[in-house]
Amino acid sequence: LMVLAVDDEADTRELLISILQIHGAEVKAVGSADEALRLLERWQPDILISDIGMPGKSGYDLIQQVRDLSPEKGGDIPAIALTAYSK
After folding, report:
1. What secondary structure does DSSP assign to 22-80, as a single string?
2. CA-CA distance, 30 to 8, in Å (whole number)?
3. What distance in Å separates the CA atoms of residue 10 and residue 31, rounded to the nearest whole number?
4. What is the pTM of this model?
5. Of 51, 59, 61, 42, nearest to 13 (Cα)?
6. Structure confidence by residue, pLDDT tens digits, 55-77
7. d(C-alpha 86, C-alpha 10), whole Å
8. Which tens digit of pLDDT belongs to each residue from 7-39?
9. Using CA atoms, how far apart are residues 77 and 11, in angstroms rounded to an integer?
């Protein structure tokens, strides 16, 4: 399973990488929506995991931009929203 993880917090990226690799996934992790979009130009993961509350482009913005891509470029990749927000 190839996973693209997107989170602006380095500690969270490292945690995601560790957990997913322990379970056999190939993981690439980036710190912003823009980095994720650039990576998707050359690598097609099986799933996208994205933080929602990132500065600049949010995870919602990222997923919308991914959905605007053609299926061949990753537009139909399954996506999971991740957040630490709570009330």
Report:
1. HTT-EEEEESSHHHHHHHHTT---SEEEEES--SSS-HHHHHHHHHTS-GGGTTT--EE
2. 8
3. 7
4. 0.92
5. 51
6. 999 999 999 999 999 998 899 99
7. 20
8. 999 999 999 999 999 999 999 999 999 999 999
9. 25
